[in-house]
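CORE FACILITY INTAKE
Project code: CF-77B
Contact: R.S. (postdoc)
Sample description: multi-component assembly, four entities in total
Requested service: structural model of the whole complex
Turnaround: standard
Below are the sequence entries exactly as provided by the requester. Do not edit them.
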Amino acid sequence: MTQSSAAPLLMVRDVSKSFGPVAAVQGVSLPLYAGEAHALLGENGAGKSTLVKILAGVHGADSGELLMDGEPVVFKGPAASRAAGISVIYQEPMLFADLSVAENIFMGRQPLGVGRRIDRAAMNREATEVFTRLGVQLDPERAARGLSVADQQIVEIAKALSFNARVLVMDEPTAALTTVEVGRLFEVIQTLRDQGAAVLFITHRLEEAFASCQRVTIMRDGRSIRTAPIEDVTIDDIIRSMVGRDLDTLFPKTATEPGEVVLDVEHLCRGGVFDDISFQVRRGEIVALAGLVGAGRSEVARAVFGIDRRTSGTVRVHGAELPNGKPLAAMNAGVALVPEDRRQQGLVMEMSIDQNVALASLGRLRRFGLIRRSSERELATTWAGRLQLKFSRMGNTVSTLSGGNQQKVVLGKWLARNPSLLIIDEPTRGIDVGTKAEVHRLLNGLVADGVAVLMISSELPEVLRMADRVLVLREGRITAEFTRAEADEDSVMRAATGQSPVVAA
Amino acid sequence: MSVITAPAPAPTDRPVSRLESLLRARELGIALAIIVVFGLTTLNNHAFAHAASIQQLLNGAALIALLGVGETLVIVTRNVDLSVGSVVGLSAYIIGDLFKHNHDMSVVLGFVIAIAVGAAIGAINGLVTTVARVPSLVVTLAMLYIVRGFDGVIVNGKTIDPDSIPTAFTAVGYRTLFGIPWLAIIVAVVVAAVGYAMRSFRSSRDLYAIGSNPDAAELAGIPAGRRVFTAFLISGALAGLAGALFLALHAQIDVSGGSGYELTVVAAVVVGGVAIFGGSGTVLGAALGAVLLNTINQALVASKVSSFWNGAIAGGLLLAAIAFDRWLSLRVARSLQSAEGAHRDL
Amino acid sequence: MHTVRTVRRKVTLALAVTLVCTVAACSSSSTTTTNPTAAATATTVKKGLTVYFIPKDTQNPYEVIADQGGQRALQELGGKVVISSGTADTAAAQIPSIQAAIQAHAAAIVIAGNDPSALCPSLNQAAQAGIKIVAFDSDIACASSPSHLFINQANTEKIGTSQIDLLAKEIGSKGEIAILSAAASATNQNAWIGYMKQQLKKYPNMKLVTTVYGNDDPATSLTVLQGLLSAYPNLRGIISPTTVGIATAAQYLSTHKSLLSHLTLTGLGLPSKMKSYVHDGTVKEFELWNPDNLGYLAGYAAAGLASGSASLQAGSKFDAGKLNSYTVLAPSGTTGPSVVLGPPLVFNASNVDKFKF
Amino acid sequence: MTSDMATKTPVTPRRSVVETGKRALWRGVRRWESALVVVLIGALIFGSSERPNFLSPMNFFYTGLNMGEIAIMALPLTLIIMTGEIDLSVASMLGLSGTVMGVLFSNGWPIWLAMAAALVVGALGGTLNGVLVAKVGLPSIAVTIGTLTLFRGIAVILLAPRTITGFPLSLTKIGVVPIQGTQLAYSTAIFLVMAVVAGVVLHATPLGRALVAIGLQPEAAQFAGIRVNRIKIWLYVVSGVVCAFAGILLTLKNSSVSYDAGTGLELNVVAIVLFGGVSIFGGRGTVIGVVLAVAIVGALQQALTQMNVQPEVQNIVIGVLLLISVVIPNSGEAIRRIRDRARRHASTPSPRNSPNA
C-alpha cells in the first residue's frame, strides 16, 4: 500500500460523453495517483467502458477535461493518448493474428535500423526482454494466431509494459483468466506500481478490487457515485452504491432432491481436446464443470450439444442417444445451450430482441410454413416479462441492450423451448451484480421445476454456492468430483491445477 | 478468491514454427510447381526450354504479375480492387491516342501519363472506400463499369495502330537485356521493391495489421484510412503502368483492352498464397502465381494439348491452391492445440 | 476485326450459302470491283430516307468503317444513317436497336446479325412496320419471313482457298502450317477454315498442324502464338484470318525478326493496322475486302429497296453509286436473295498505303 | 477459445470499435427500397419524355426479354449474398448448361432429356460450390472465381469450336415471343413467379430468418440450431439449378448455343443484386429491392438505346447507380465521423452531437 502523492498523475474532471439521446458518461471525475491501483466498479452500462475509450482516445469527450500532471490534455486519437503515456488493455485482447508476437507488441513503433527499415532482431530482443520482466516465455517470432486467451492477455500486457506506460488502464482483464493467471497479473500490477505507474482496474469480481487496489470509484448510470480509499468501504456498501439499493443474499441456492438421470455422458472423447469424459446430470440438480480456462469445459458442452463432433463416446438424454454433431437433434431432445460468448454465439447482435428470443423456436411459430409475427412478438413479450428484461422497444437490436439484459435474452430464447436440460456456460460472465443475482435465482427456480442444469463457470464462488456437484476438469480429463459438502475453493483449485493427489471421483 | 502463484507457462512452439516455416515457404512451393510444369513440358517438347520461349513465359506473365503486386497490397488490407482491368484499357488507350496525335511525345512522358491516369482512378477507389467506409468490392465493381464505359466513350470505335506508336516505346515490349525482356525486368524491379518495402517498413506492416484485425489496428492508432487509400493509389498506379506496358507489348489497343483481367489477377494472387480476407501474403507469391498460371497456359499449347483445356485446368488449379491453403492452416491450428495442451501441462 | 468473328450459324449452313452464290458472284462482281470514279446519282431513290445501321457492337472498328461507308452512301442519296447497337456482340443487345428503328419509323435496317435466328421475330415486326431489311457482314437465317437482302462481303470459299494459295506461293507449297483464329465459336472463321482444309488437299506437301484461338484479344493471341512457336519449331507458315490475330502475330514477328527466316505470316487484316509490318517486311501479302465499300453497297441497297428502285427479284439490278450496279442473286438453300461485294483484295507493299481502313 | 482470431470476416463499418452509426446504416438500408421506387418512376418518366411510346407493352416485352436471364440468376444470388457468401460462377454455369443441352441435343437426345441433363449439371456444379464453401470452409469469392473458370473451361472442352443450332422452333419461340394474349415474355413471367417465391421464403419463413441470422452472425445461428452448412450447400445447389435453367432459356432465346454464351454476365448480376440494396456482408436486403433494381436497369437501358445514346454510357450509368447505392446509406455515418474528427482537432469541446446524424 503506497501513499498517494499530492497531485494525481491523471485527473478525470467532470467528463461527459453521449451518443445521440444516450448519455453514456455524465460529469465523471476520478483521480489516478502514481504508484496506486484504482478500482473502477459499476454495473454493465454504468459507463465504465465509455470512460475507458475516452482515456484511450477512441472517443472524444463532449465536455469536461483530462489533466495529466495538472496539465489539460486532448487526445485526437488512440495514438495521442498512448503518446501521453496511457496504455489500455481491453477485455478481449486485440491482437493481429497473422503477425508475430513481437510485431504485435511493437506495431506502429517497431525499432528501426538504417534507412528507417524495421530491425527485426532488435524487435525480437526487446520483446523477449519484456517477457522476462513478466516472467513468461513466449517465442516472439511465433504468430499470434492460436495463442490461448491468457497468452493473448500476456501479449497485451507486454505491449503496455513496452510503452513504459505511466497510466495503465485494464478493462476487465481477469474476465477470461484463471486464478493462476489472475495471480500473475496482480504481481505485474504490483511491479508497475512500484515503478510509479498509476493503474485503473475495472472488474466485476469485487474480491479482486480488495485484493489488489488501494482506491475505488463506483459508477452508476454514467455518473461517478463515490471515490474512496479501499479500506474505507465494505463489499456491501460497494454493491449498494452500484445497484442503488440493498441486495438480498447474493447466491440463494435452495437444496433440491435430484430426480432421474436426464443427461448421461459416457467416455466422451474429442481428439486433442478432451478425453474419456463420463458424468450424469439428474432432474433438479445443478452440476458444475470447474477447471482452468482451456481445460476443455466449454468444449465438452459444445460436444454434448453437437456443435463440435465427438470422436468417440455416447451422449444420452432421457436414455435416448444423441446423434453426433447435430445441435437440432439435441434441441429436439430437450437440450438447451447458453453459450460462453454471448456476443458471438448467444445472440445475433443486429437482430431485434423479439427475433432473437424466437430464433430457436421458429418451428413452433409457423402456420402454413410462414412465421406468424404476432405469436413471435407474443412469445418474446412473455419471456421479457418473466425475466424482467429492461428494453425500450422489442424491435430494437439486442446490441442496444446492456450485457445483463443481453444474457436475459439468451436465457429467454432457450427457456422458451422449456428444455429438460439446460447447459449454461459462464452464466454471469461480465454481467453486473444485480442481474447476477437474478440469474442465480432463475437457475434455482428451474431446478426446482425439475430441469437439469449443467453449469460451467470460472468464478469459484459461483460454482461453490450454486452447484450440487462439482466436476473438475484438467487438461481435458475429469480429475475430481466433489459433492456440495466436500467442495471448497482450496480442494477445487488443487484439483484444477493438479497440485495434489486427485480425489477419487 | 484464492490467488495461487504458479510458474510461468512455457508454450512449446516447435511444431508451430516448423509448420509456419512451411507456410512461409509458400513462394517456394509455387516456384517448384512452375519448375515441375516447365520440366514436364520440356520433356515432351525440348523447344520449350529455349531461351526464346522462356522469354515468352516471362513476357506473358509480366502484366498479370504487375497487376498482382497492386492487388496484393489491396487484398492484404481486407479489400479488393476489381477495377484494374478497366484501368489497363483506359490508360493504354489514352497514351496511345496521345502518341497518335503527337508522334514525338517522349516515351517517358507516356509512361508518366499512364501511371497518373491509373493513380487518379486508384485515388477515387481509395477515397470512396475509406471516407464513406463502403465495401471496396462494390466500389471497385462500380468503377470497373464506369471506367470501361468512359473508355468506350472516348475510344468510340477508333483503334490505335502500330505505326502510330513510336518504336522507342514498343521497344520496351520486346527488347531484352542479357536475354531478359525489359518488360520482365521492369516488373521484377517493381516486385522486388514493393516486396522489400512490404517487409521492412512500418507503414507497410500497417497494411497487414489492418487486414489482420481492423479494430485492433484502429486501437493501435494506425491511420487505417490513409494506409488503405495508399494501397488503392498504388494499385491504380501499377494498373496504369500495366496499361502502358500493354500498349508497348501489343502495339495496338481497342476498347476491349484488358477487359476481364480483374478476375485473372485475383486468381493469380490467391494461387500465390495471399489470403483473400487479408492479413497475410506476399507480392512475390502473387507474382509467382501469375507466372504459374501463364506457364500452364503456354505449356498446354506447347505440349500440343488443345488450348481448349486452359480454362478447366486453370480453374481446377485455383481450387486446388485454396484447398491446399486451408489444409495447411488446419494443420497449424491442430498442432497449436496440442502445443496448447502441452503448455497447460505445467 | 469481328467480321471475321462470331456469326452464330451452323458451318454447313454457311457452306450451303456460299457454294451457290460463288458461281454467279464471280461473274457479277468481276466487273464491279473497286472503281473509285464517278459517284453516280440515284435519281430513282427517294430523298430524306432514314436507315438504321445495326452493327454487331458499336466499338467494332471494322464495322465502324463499314458504317461510315453506309453514311457516305446515304449522304449521296440525301438521306441519313442512324448507328445503333450494344457493347456486347449479342442478339439481346441488338434487339432494343431494332425496336428503336421501328419507333423512329426508319425506312430500312442494315444489320450485322450477332445471331442468325434470335433476331427474326423483332426483324419480322420491323418488316410488318414497312421497314426494309438488309443484312451485311453476317447474314441472318430466318425460317420464312422477313425476306431480306444479304450483302456478302466476298464469298466464303474464295476467302478460304485464296489464303491457302497466298501462303503456298510464299512458302513454296511445302512445310508445316498453323492457323491463328479468333474465338473458337466464330462460325465464319470456322467456315473459312473448313475451305482452307479442302484447299490444302491441292498441296500434298503442306501440313496443317493445328488451329489455335486468340479470341480476338491481343494478349490471348500472343500467348497462343508463343505456345505455337515453341510447340512447332519447324513451322513454316501461319494464317490468321482475323485482324487482331494477324496484327498481334505481325507485331511479335517484327520484333523477333530471326523467326522470319523460316516463318511466313498471312491472313485477313486491316491495311491501316498492317502497313508498318508490310513495309518492314514482316508480312508480304494479306487479304481483306473493302469494308467501306461493303457499308456503302449496303446503304445503296437499303435505300433502293426502300424507294422501290431495287427489288429482291433474282437478276434484278440496282444502282450502287460509285460501285456501279449490282445484280441480285437468286435465293438458295437457307439464304435469301443476296449480292456479293466482290473477291477479297490482296494487299502488299505496292498498294497497302492506298487504303484508309 | 480464440474464435475471434480464427474466424475472419470482411471488415465492415458496423464491426468498427466505434459502434455508433450502425443503426443509421440499418435504417438507410431499409429506406433503400423506397428510394429505388422513386428512381424507377424517374427512369420511366425520363424514358417516356424522350420517347412517346416508351411505356408501350411491346417495349415492356423487350425490356423483359433483355433482362430475363440476368434477372432470374439474380434471385438465388440474392439469397446467397444474404448469407454473406457470393457466387461468381453463375454466368459460367449458364453457359455450361446451355452447352450441355446443345451437345446432347445435337447427339440426338430428345430435347426434354437434354434440358433435364442441363439442370442436373447445374445441380452438380452448385453442389461443388456448396461443398467447397460450406464443408471445406473455403472463401466463397475464391471458390467461385475458380468454378467460374472451371465451368467455362468445361463448356469450351465440350463444345468449342462448334455452335449448336436447330432447336425445335416450338420451343425456341418461347424465348422470343410473348405469352399468348399478353405482352409478357416467358422469362419475365418466370422471373416474377420466382421472385414471389424467393420473397416469401426470405421474408416470411423460418428458412429466410435463418438466412438472415447466418448472414449477420453465422456462429450464433449455429448455436441456435440452424444448420448453417447444410443451408449454404442447398443455396448453392439451387443457384446452380436456376442458372442452368437460365442457360436453357438463353439457348432457346438465341435458338443457338456456343461455349461462350453469357460470358461476363456474373458482374452484371452481382451489380444488380447490390444495387437492389442487398448488403455484400450479408443479413440485409430484400427481394423487392432486387426486383426494383432489375426494373430500373432494364428501363434505363431501353430508354438510352432508343435515344440512341452510346451504349457505353449505360455502363457508366449502372456504375454510378451502384456507387450511389452503397455511398448513400453510409453517408450519415461518414459525415458524423468527419464532424467528430474535425471537432476533436479543433480541441475545444463542443455541445453534444448525435452520432447518427
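Facility notes:
- Chain A has three domains: 10-95+147-243, 248-334+419-505, 347-417.
- The CA atoms of residues 472 and 492 of chain A lie 7 Å apart.
Invoice: internal transfer
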